[in-house]
Amino acid sequence: MMKTELNLQDADGFYEQLLNAHEGLTTEQSEQLNMRLILLLANQVGDASVLRDCIESAKN
Q1: Positive or negative, the Cα torsion across 58, 60, 2, 18?
Q2: In this predicted structure, what is the pLDDT of residue 60?
Q3: What whole-number distance in Å separates Cα of residue 22 and Cα of residue 58?
Q4: 30 CB-near residues (< 8 Å, 6+ apart)
Q5: Is the pLDDT confidence value at 59 over 90?
Q6: What confidence tens digit (pLDDT) does each residue in 18-54 have?
Q7: How many CA atoms lie within 13 A of 51 on its CB side?
Q8: Cα separation of 34 and 22, whole Å?
Q9: Is residue 33 a contact partner of residue 22, using CB atoms and an 8 Å limit?
Q10: Could you give the dihedral angle defined by the CA atoms of residues 50, 18, 11 and 42, in that order, rounded to the nearest 10 degrees?
Q11: pLDDT band per the 50, 70, 90 thresholds, residue 10
């Protein structure tokens, strides 16, 4: 089941890390970073039905 309530211990810190990771990158490098991060996080989730729900939720 997809979590819909905030589950990050430090959401602001994560957001800052994410912004910093993109600093100085070209658009293409930034897109590649996002793709690699998505795959790494998806592997952490591991549940195909949760990932499917996340994809559908992100589309809306």
Answers
A1: positive
A2: 87
A3: 21
A4: 22
A5: yes
A6: 999 999 999 999 999 999 999 999 999 999 999 999 9
A7: 11
A8: 9
A9: yes
A10: 10
A11: very high
